[in-house]
Amino acid sequence: MAALRLLLLALAVASCAAEPPQRERSALRAFLAGTPHERALAWNASTPACAWVGVTCDATNATVLELRLPGVGLIGRVPQGTLGALRGLRVLSLRSNRLFGDVPGDLFSLPDLRSLFLQGNLFSGSVPPDVAKLTALQHLALSRNNLSGAIPFALNGLANLRSLRLDGNRFSGSLPSLTLPLLEVFNVSYNQLNGSIPTSLARFPPESFAGNLQLCGKPLSHPCEPFFPSPAGAPTDGAGRGGSVPVSEKKKKKKKLSGAAVAAIAVGAGAAALLALVLLVVCTAASRRRGANGEVGKIAAAGTQRGLTPPSTASGELTSSTSKEIALATAAAAAAAERSRLVFVGKGAAYSFDLEELLRASAEVLGKGSVGTSYKAVLEEGATVVVKRLKEVAASRREFSVHLDSLGKVEHRNLLPFRGYYFSKDEKLLVCDYLPAGSLSATLHGSRGTGRRTMDWDSRMRAALSAARGVAHLHTAHSLAHGNVKSSNLLLRPDPDAAALSDYCLHQLFAPLSARPNAGGYRAPELVDARRPTFKSDVYSLGVLFLELLTGKSPGNASVDGDGAVDLPRWVQSVVREEWTAEVFDVELVRLGGSAEEEMVALLQVAMACVATAPDARPDTADVVKMIEEIGSGHGRTTTEESEGGRGASEEDRSRGTTP
Fold first, then answer.
1. According to the UniProt entry, which residue ranges have a biased composition of type Basic and acidic residues (predicted)?
2. In the prediction, which pLDDT does 640 show?
3. Can you give the residue range of the structural domain that contains 80?
4. In whole numbers, what is the pLDDT of the chain averaged over residues?
């Protein structure tokens, strides 16, 4: 048995220390170094490649299986000979960037590639027949690019293909007859296709072919007209049965125009067509020159302000032709991209959806809070996220983006990470992980009917410790105030020590205090402007949350004084002052019994210190964490030092909640 344990331990250590082959690591770095990018991805040589943002390896870290870099601001051509070296790659997602040029040819040599997502870029040229080499491919998305030419018949070689999206390009010609038995999703809408829809594709809905004005046949509403006119019937007796014209009348009509007249008409029509073509070419060339001269300098300057990381070359500089290509490509997409781009932050690049897919997701209202309404969104690809629709945002686009980018760097098991955001004039959205266990508020104050499980003392202590640790991390590691500590923002997880605070550090995005509602009894009395919380006001809010755990009362429903103000701390103080301390504690908690009375009184003392009227009399959050750890030391809860140092590699997964 001991030998077996040693063997398993050795295998585990070997697995953790394993790295993909050096050629794969070098290929990834060469790809990133050769492609300008707006966001720093922290692909450091000192960290394992399998821990890099967007990189997923197999169970033994022996090869790269997935590379997902959607919406990270990649600009330019994909360097040849880079991604094609990832021989074990199964999923490649570079969607919603600004990559241009031909679709990289070396991608068609990846034998195990199953999903290729390149939609929402600026790729041009045709789809080469080599696409048929991807025999394992199941999902191919090339939507919303500048691809042209004919849709290749070689796609019939992809026998495992389940979804094919080519919409929003400039494909022309007729549709090939694709006989792919597993194909479930097909879309070629808004191209320049013509002719009849093949019978093998007529099973897809009309929306799959919309925007191609010269397509006809089922499932579209307009049938195809015969390519050749119906043959005339035999000569008739003059009645013209069958729509035919008597031969004698045809001869008369033919004699009405002489050969010279026909030649003159032909020459005139040809000259007019040639003149129109010359005028069109001249106007187009002049328009392009004006657009290029006016936009290149402006967009190049904008690219510099956005902080693009240039590709490394032998001389350390971009060539003039590459710079011009980048400027022109950015000019073509900058305005639309800024208006409709879903931006991922932190480790949100692991998600593989864009704004269009998010808006198509089925949504369920989770609740309405002080910052806006939260929705549970279930995406087509299976991932579940929370989308917060913010209200009364006062920050500019730049302020909003800079602030959310900085919050994306906050990673702690007791803080719910931000994964992405969307900013437009009319809508401001935040994307976070979805935690199905719900909030502390729902657990404490939800329906108390049959089947509801009462929250025991150990669970409440762990929730208090999780909240304190989360706020302490913001204060000590990032010098940030939470600004919105309350039970509805403490989300529970199956791991009782990993409850996570949400909606942190958003206060500076909103309108001043006069436009903001009271935070339900959690706000410190000295806090006049909700946009300027302090560390001490966070401590006050923590104290109110502790009292909520002890009393089972919501701060918004504790008691009402003569002025109509709700104040749970003052109610507790009045009860304690009358030496009725036992009356403070939640009836359900007392009913459970046990030997936790001393711990309950100890946490009550910590809470009362936190809600002291004078800010200077309140303890720091680091001290609050230590005091709660000392109270719960008999329950096996680890100290701050142990919990921070012993989480290991699984901490990233636990902090994420629902894995994308």
1. 649-660
2. 42
3. 13-216
4. 77
